[in-house]
Amino acid sequence: MEDQAQSLRDMMRLNGKFNFSVDEKVQNSKTRFIAVSSGKGGVGKSNIAIGLALKYSELGKKVLILDADIGMANVNILLGVIPKYSIYHMIAQSRDIREVITKTEYNIDLLAGASGTMELLDLSDVDVNKFIKELLKIYEYDIVV
Questions:
Q1: Hey, where are the domains in the chain?
Q2: Going by fewer Cβ within 10 Å, which terminus of the chain is more open, N or C?
């Protein structure tokens, strides 16, 4: 039986058609990405991500939480913020990532998820490339969770 990670590796190998240029600032970026994931809902991914973000912020790092949960994005609720835009607006409406990021009182920035926006599950290669290009613009962050 194949594990989920192997399936993802296979998909990346077969569909690795990402065509984007990387400018020098991005290429020399020290930004670190930490993925908090699980195949099951309700196991505490959002709480772990927030905990990591808070700790890194306490250590003086500039932190962004990217809530990529399509089904139940709730980091904004847990942080007590009402974002004007979500990841959906960045992808579907071509808004710049800096426009979509919400500041919080905890010295953590948030790129809010888009609950129930199922069309994000069927992104074209062009849309995926566009999303990755936008993510690469955030080189000023130390940590992205």
A1: 34-144
A2: N
Answer yes or no: CATH 3.20.20.140 is held by domain 34-144: no
Distance CA(20)–CA(125), nearest Å, equals 11
Angular region, 67: left φ>0, alpha ψ -120 to 50, beta rest: beta
Helices (H) and strands (E) in the chain, counts: 7, 5
As a whole number of Å, the end-to-end CA separation of the chain is 30
Strands (E) located in the chain: 32-33, 63-66, 102-103, 108-111, 143-144
Tens digit of each residue's pLDDT, the chain (145 residues): 566 667 666 766 666 555 555 556 556 667 888 889 888 888 888 999 999 999 999 999 999 998 887 778 899 999 999 999 988 888 777 788 889 999 999 999 999 888 766 666 777 777 777 777 777 777 677 778 7
Whole-Å CA distances, 106 to 20, 59, 85, 111: 33, 13, 19, 14
